[in-house]
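Morning F.,

Quick status update on the modeling queue. The single chain you submitted on Monday has been processed. Sequence for confirmation:
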Amino acid sequence: MVRSQQAARRITATVGALGLGLALAACGGGSDPTSSGAASGSGSATGGGSSGEKVGVALITKDSTNPFFVAMQKGAQADAAKNNVELTIASGKQEGDDQGQIEAIEQAIARGDKGILITPMSEGVNAAIKNARDAGLYVIALDTPPDPADTVDITFATDNRLAGQLIGKWAAAQLKGEKATIALLDLFNDKIVSVDYNRDQGFLEGMGIDVADGKKNGDEAPTGKYSGGDYEIVCNEPGNGAEDGGRTAMEKCLAKNPNVNVVYTINEPTAVGANAALQAEGKKAMIVSIDGGCAGVQSVKDGVIGATAQQYPLKMATLGMEAIAKIARGGEKPAVTEGLDFYNTGVALVTDTAADGVESITADEGAKICWGN
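Structure tokens below.
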């Protein structure tokens, strides 16, 4: 089993060092969360010609209720004064609200902000991002790399493909050759979002299942072999990243096949909803997820989620804001991680049931660094 205090310290050190690392790269090279259109902060954003002037930065998340985005918003708010940033927070009304993000981008341009941090909803916001960059704003994507990647200046994100692969490898190991009857609870079925297909397809790759088009959910063979034995994919259902959506999606999957024993979920709120649906039917299944938020780690400890891949949204927001502030004051632009087309903010598998060949940390260890604390 690959787990140790040393592994936990290494992950913690990596997360803690990211801020310093990016600060060096940038120099040498490389109020309450609100809904769509509303902002925290005093309003007008000044330029950034010197360190004494505030730099206007907009943080635009997909919504202001998902714990992941709430953590991201709070992290940015906490560090705004340190970077002399006039921070405006906005979001879509819910997952899928392209127009809410577009309006927030337009408002950032109108205010004269120097940069935008955004978790892009879908390709539907690409044109608005281009308008912002054409207007001179430096745009950084957080968590969700846009497609194509050069839609923004740079992305700070988890390696979502790797995150999916980690939970897939863990699930395959836990099955010990048993048939995998799989429910896939994705984000959308009517939008193409990189975080959605990378996590889903990464999970299948980790299971040892051949994916057809790696950028498309649901086109893999419905039956076949995974690394440990036979598999059957029962469903690809969208849960919209929410608890109620996860419950509805799981109910639909169970109606198709009540023998589901492996449940992949796009995030932890979806996982909680899926678990509620299983309990209502008197069923049990192995649930895996991605986020590693504080509540999600507790769900691992409670046995609701078997394993989750932990990411660090506070670091994404903090490093992004630092980068824009430095650029506005004449500093150099950050660089992507070697071999990737984004800046990798790290990932760790959190589980209390370790698997051979899959490095992990315990729920107690994950709780100490949840959200990137």
